Amino acid sequence: MVPLSIAVIPWGLLAGSFAIDAGLNPLESQAMSAILFAGSAQLVATGMFKTGAGLFSMMLATFFITSRHLLYSVSMREKISPLPLKWRLGLGFLLTDELFAICGQQSIKQFNRWYALGAGLSFYLAWNAATLVGIVAGSYIPTLNELGLEFAVAATFIALVIPHVINLPVVFAVLSALGLSITLNYFDIGGALMIASLGGMLAGYFAEKWRGEQG
User: Fold this and answer.
1) How far is residue 78's CA from residue 176's CA, in Å, rounded to a whole number?
2) Nearest 5°: phi and psi at 52?
3) Same domain, 39 and 145
4) How far is Cα 177 from Cα 111, in angstroms, rounded to an integer?
5) Phi, psi angles (nearest 5°) of residue 147
6) Which of its termini does the chain have fewer beta carbons within 10 Å around, N or C?
7) How many CB atoms lie within 10 A of CB 14?
């Protein structure tokens, strides 16, 4: 988890400084990372807050952006469901893209609740520490959010996705999502991220189905 925690530092700096720039006080800015704990959703919600969007709109946007976690939880249900409620709630809160990349592919025999807790909690602490540094720096360096730190978002997801591109259906899913995302954003179509995600999943599903029929 350490390489992923290091990679997310610029992202946390951006989240903290952006929250200060949007008009939140330091306590509110830190609370977003402590309670919401979702990098991309935090950045979007903070941007919406800065433009005066309503609470319902921010909650709806956060729900759709983090809806992939529903897929993560379904994928890990067989490993998590036998655990006591306090473990399910704790690991559910700590479940991120990074934790799923580490533990999502483990078999039931390989999965260890303490390992998952340690990995998820260490990433949670790293994220909040980076946010705190961003809050402090943002108070003294107003232009911190203009230094291109948002590339850390793309870099982190690239690092998470590439190791799993190991078969034809996944290649189809990745290329389809990439093509749709670029095309839809070029034409400034709303909901491009969600449409590209759904398109990628459908492409991967049909590629897997076609491969099964050929086999």
Assistant:
1) 29
2) 90, 20
3) yes
4) 30
5) -90, 10
6) C
7) 27
Q: Same structural domain for residues 79 and 185?
A: no
Report in angstroms the alpha-carbon separations of 81 from 112, 150, 164.
Answer: 13, 35, 25
Residue 213's domain comprises 165-215
Amino acid in the structure at residue 64: F
Whole-prediction pTM: 0.73
d(CA 173, CA 89): 31
- HSE (side-chain half, CA atoms, 13 Å) at 21: 20
Assess contact for 58 and 49: CB atoms under 8 A: yes
Q: Are 155 and 175 part of one and the same domain? A: no
DSSP 144: G
Residues 164-189 have pLDDT tens digits of 788 889 999 999 999 998 998 888 88
138 shares its domain with 85? yes
CA–CA gap between residue 95 and residue 72 (Å, rounded): 8
Return the C-alpha torsion angle 158, 161, 164, 169, nearest 10.
Answer: -110
